[in-house]
Amino acid sequence: MKRLHVTVWNEFIHERTAARPMEIYPRGIHAVLAEALREQLGGAVDVRTATLDQPEHGLSPDVLSQTDVLTWWGHAAHDRVSEAVVDRVHQRVLEGMGLLVLHSAHASKIFRRLMGTSCMLRWREAAEKERIWTIDPSHPIADGLEGEFFELPHTEMYGEFFDIPQPAEIIFLSWYEGGEVFRSGCTFRRGKGKIFYFGPGHETFPIYHDSRVRRIIANAARWAAPSGSPYFGEGRRIEPPLSPIAAKHEVDESLHRK
Questions:
Q1: What angle do CA 5, 109, 78 make, to 5 degrees?
Q2: Matching CATH number, 4-255, of 3.30.1330.10, 3.40.250.10, 3.90.550.10, 3.40.50.880
Q3: Nearest C-alpha neighbor of 185 from the set 140, 227, 230
Q4: pTM of model > 0.90
Q5: Where are the chain's structural domains?
Q6: For residue 70, what are the β-bridge partners?
Q7: Burial environment of residue 31 by CB neighbours within 10 A (0 to 12, 13 to 18, 19 or more)
Q8: CB-count burial class (<10 Å; 0-12, 13-18, 19+) for 88
Q9: Half-sphere exposure of 140 (CA within 13 A, CB side)
Q10: pLDDT digit string, tens, across residues 183-224
């Protein structure tokens, strides 16, 4: 089996500026996610981390060229992410790099770019219970989960309407104590790339320490890894044709210059 190369990206702001996230994730959310991937996937994965304040946000062309799957957690500083880096990540997704978009990264520049919508939703912070139903139990991302659902005792509510295009698949559906529901686990395809959005993960709750959540993220990284044939997303003029054809009329080359 080919070794999986994952880059875990995180703003790393809340964990340095707010008491509760600092207590739960003292080394940063990225460190806990990296730990979860190594724990779940063992020797089958190489994990590196990157954060907002690093040069090029830690996502240089060289780093991205070596990344099979990129995980993205952001919240407080979506606007500080460089457009050049967004362009770079966007192109790599089209070429086949997997992307895991976590929690409040629904509002990230890269997810909005890929979705083409506002990606906004309703929310409430009341430390309420979230029941996460597995509605596609055959999907690889749900592999190893026990039962029809699992519960997180305290979380931030994300509710419908979630302004995203129709997902390719909906794997998880969340119900909250206050009555709302949310499409909390969705997949998309863009170009050759596979994208998974997963809702649970608010910074003031230890959600990324939960074994079920860690299993889902590791499964998603494995699922999103590049696969299939080479990507030919750029327009190409093909001359000569693969099979001989008779000329039908003279071609005005000035109409075909790109």
A1: 95
A2: 3.40.50.880
A3: 140
A4: yes
A5: 4-255
A6: 7, 99
A7: middle
A8: buried
A9: 10
A10: 999 999 999 999 999 999 999 999 999 999 999 999 999 999
